[in-house]
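FORM 12-B: Structure-to-Sequence Request
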């Protein structure tokens, strides 16, 4: 039976994207899915769709801090969030980081997962900058990339090829109907199904005929 292609469109500036990312990583060996990571630019999606950051509404921002803390504990992902983080998100921007991640996807895709994870850890667990070149190189080192490869990626982020790839992926997410992140697209029964948010993965399983075992599923032991 063919595996269901599941695409995860994400941006490391989004804490909910990190939650969805880790849970889908756990399920790719449990569900019959072909999980594909699609780094995109949240700022471009927000601008194109007219969406506004949740923190612009004070009550929603207040709720979001509590919600992410609860979700992080339940999902067992080390997101550390406070109300001050909203200023960091709007003030820092993730365009450079997402171009850096796009460059690794284009050249050494085996590093895409660990590199993305290290960007989230630096920004959301360690509360460190991810926009400056030296910090991108530090993240790359943590992900196991050589200094030579890291420097090459840094040079690539200003290239038309990387800029166009990130733009195209972002536009593809919008074409599927994305208005925020994470945006998960499951290709099932000959059509794409969009799921928005890290709390829709149970519904994703239901649609594609897979059993939801919670955010931290136990991997079944191999049969003797």
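FORM 12-B RESPONSE
SEQUENCE OUT:
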């Amino acid at each position: 039976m063919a595996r269901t292609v599941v695409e995860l469109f994400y941006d490391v500036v989004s804490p909910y994207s990190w939650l969805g990312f880790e849970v889908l990583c756990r399920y790719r060996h449990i569900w019959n899915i072909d999980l594909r990571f699609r780094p995109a630019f949240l700022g471009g999606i927000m601008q194109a769709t007219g969406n506004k950051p949740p923190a612009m509404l004070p009550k929603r921002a207040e709720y979001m801090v509590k919600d992410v803390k609860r979700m992080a504990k339940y999902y067992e992902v080390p997101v550390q969030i406070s109300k001050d983080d909203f200023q960091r998100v709007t003030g820092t921007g993730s365009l450079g980081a997402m171009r850096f991640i796009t460059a690794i996807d284009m050249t050494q895709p085996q590093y895409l997962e660990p590199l993305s994870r290290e960007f989230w850890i630096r920004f959301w667990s360690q509360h460190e900058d991810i926009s400056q070149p030296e910090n991108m190189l530090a993240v790359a080192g943590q992900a196991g990339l050589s200094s030579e490869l890291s420097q090459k990626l840094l040079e690539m982020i200003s290239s038309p090829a990387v800029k166009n790839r990130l733009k195209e992926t972002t536009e593809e997410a919008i074409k599927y109907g994305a208005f925020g992140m994470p945006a998960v697209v499951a290709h099932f029964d000959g059509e794409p199904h969009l799921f928005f948010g890290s709390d829709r993965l149970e519904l994703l399983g239901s649609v594609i005929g897979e059993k939801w075992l919670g955010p931290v599923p136990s991997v079944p032991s191999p049969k003797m």
